[in-house]
Every structure is written in C-alpha cells, then in structure tokens.
Amino acid sequence: QAKDGVIEHYVCFSCVDGELYELDGGNPQPIHHGPSSPDSLLQAGCCKSHKSEDCGVF
55 pairs with which residues across the strands? Predict the structure, then answer.
C-alpha cells in the first residue's frame, strides 16, 4: 500500500509475454490481469481500470 501522505500516483498497463499487467504506484507489485495482446491492450486496460460493463464504448 502507498505510504501515508501520498496524494497522487500513476497507473499504467503493459502487455508482457502475452499477459496484461497493471502498474499502480499505490501497490508494491504489478497486478496480473490475464491474457492480452498489443492489439487489445487499450481495450483490456480500460475495462480493467474502469470496471466497465460495456467495454466496447470509449
């Protein structure tokens, strides 16, 4: 968890060896979200980040 007093942090998604990882500055380690590809990285990252029911709408 983030240290007390931290107001802002980053979040990004990366596809490594066919797997989607979330890098969140508030967490001590990457979060594995399962299979992905460079072609579906944006959609997969947005769906995971926003927990959207309708991931086809951007």
Answer: none
